[in-house]
Amino acid sequence: KNTESLEYANNSLSYETLEQFRWSWENFLTFNKKFDKHSVEAVLGMSREKYDINSMMSDKGYDVPQKPQYWSIDHGSGAYKVESRQIYYTPRALASYFGRVQYNYDSKYYLTATLRRDGSSVFRNTGKYWGTFPSIGLGWTVTNEGFMKDATWINLLKVRGNWGKLGNQDIPLNISTILTSPTSSSYNYVFGPEQNMVFGSAYGTPAKNLSWEVTEETGAGLDFAFLNNQLSGSIDYYHKMNTNAILLVTPTYTSAYEDKFYDHGAKILNQGVEVALNWNKSISPEFSYSVGVNYSYNKNTVKEVKAAYDGDQGGSLNNGELTKQLRVGQPIYGWWMYEMNGVWQNQDEINSNARQGSPKPGYLRYTDENADGVIDSRDRKFFGSFLPSSTYGINLGINYKAIDFNVSGYGVAGNKIYNGMKSTRINVGENIALSTFENRWTKEGSTNSHPGAERDFLPSNYYLESGSYFRINNITLGYTFNNLYSSKSKLRLYVTAQNPFIFTNYSGFSPEIAGDGSPNLTSGIELSAYPTTRNFLFGLNMQF
């Protein structure tokens, strides 16, 4: 075979396998005792858990260089055949000891106390394996008091309070990855003139300073039910202080690391309220309905930041531009960008005002926040958060004779989404939305709200849009045939629509953007989102 021909120029073969193994062992000792009006339950326990991920990848390539780091480059010289086998091993282990005591007196007064001690192998680099997490809860069922006997319209009134500490060890898996064979990698090699990575070496994001992430929570709540339990619900207030949040931060100029790494970087407060209401009504034996609503409000605030990470930036747009910043008093990695102040209409206007770079007519114009005559990073400002301040949901159910109908929906409000696709579609020559094309700047005076087809792509509030939405996520209609051939047999036919409707002003593909889950990366940024699909299902349930 002629290995110099184009037939082999880009040939490659990859084979990957992934294996996961989880082992757990739990032991409990429970004590129950009731005497007079007292009730006590005590639990002691221990658990062990091991979790392994094994990944193997084999590669073959033709007409590529010997060096694995050049495989992605189409060179015309090198060996006829290159093979590699790389294996990654990610071990994790967790050991826990815990105890819980529950006490109540006469079903009126309640006390729950819990103590956990957990050890995680995730923190092997520091040796800070163990964390201790206590909690306590108090409750008072007011309706069981003698003075409430005449209030027959109140079926339940219970007051609750709680305090506790929660531990988090869920940092990315690659922090504890072990490499067991040679590999091509973007990470620095660690040994020898060729800097080859040796077998058994650990690699991944540095984690030398990490220990348990601890959240201290205080809360109070009220449970209630009225009118023969037709109306029920709960109200809760919470105050959660993350005392040592693990953040993916950018190294300082004096840091030994070149890439982003994880460290305890800030204290972050989440506080808010949660409300749930349910109404159940039976009109007759053949007709009943139920309505449930829930609402929660949360305020996220950075209370303290390590000096080295104060002002840390994130939210990359994959073009060198960043959209977020970590600052005290702001939500975690709040939107931080230029404020749009119209569109440049002509060159005279550009020459006589503060500007950034070399704008052209049709480019976005930005506000000179500090009035120094220059548009630069010091003119950026905060524009809220990608985190919603409000979330809510609703459920409706109706039953009439053999017909059942259910609809449910949920939504969020108070957040903003960076529509990165609005910029990307234009600046790299991709297809664009019709509205972007029709509303673009074309000549002086045509618009002062939308840029032209040729413009800069600096991050600004022009790309920020409301992330509020309400989605009907499920509609189900069913019909049940009873007593088909026996008193217990029945057949239910149903049709379901999943995600049939969404109500939003967001112009992108979908306001439900998961991103990568990290606050300082792409959370809240639409770069390649895919809209939630609509599904229509037909089915039947049979009971014999």
Topology summary:
Layout: E1 12-35, E2 38-64, E3 79-105, E4 109-120, E5 130-141, E6 154-168, E7 177-179, E8 202-203, E9 213-226, E10 231-249, E11 261-284, E12 287-305, E13 313-316, E14 322-325, E15 334-337, E16 340-343, H1 347-351, E17 364-366, E18 381-382, E19 390-400, E20 403-413, E21 416-419, H2 420-427, H3 434-438, E22 464-466, E23 469-482, E24 490-504, E25 525-526, E26 535-543
Parallel strand pairs: 21-25
Antiparallel strand pairs: 1-2, 2-3, 3-4, 3-7, 4-5, 5-6, 6-9, 7-8, 9-10, 10-11, 11-12, 12-19, 13-14, 14-15, 15-18, 16-17, 19-20, 20-23, 21-22, 23-24, 24-26
Explain how this protein is built:
This protein is 3% helix and 53% strand. The protein has 544 residues and is mainly beta. It has a domain at 1-93 and 172-206. The strands form four sheets. The chain has a 17-stranded antiparallel β-sheet that branches. Strands 13-14-15-18 form a four-stranded antiparallel β-sheet, with no helix packed on it. The protein is globular, with a radius of gyration of 30 Å. Mean pLDDT is 84; it is low at 3-8, 67-80 and 173-203.
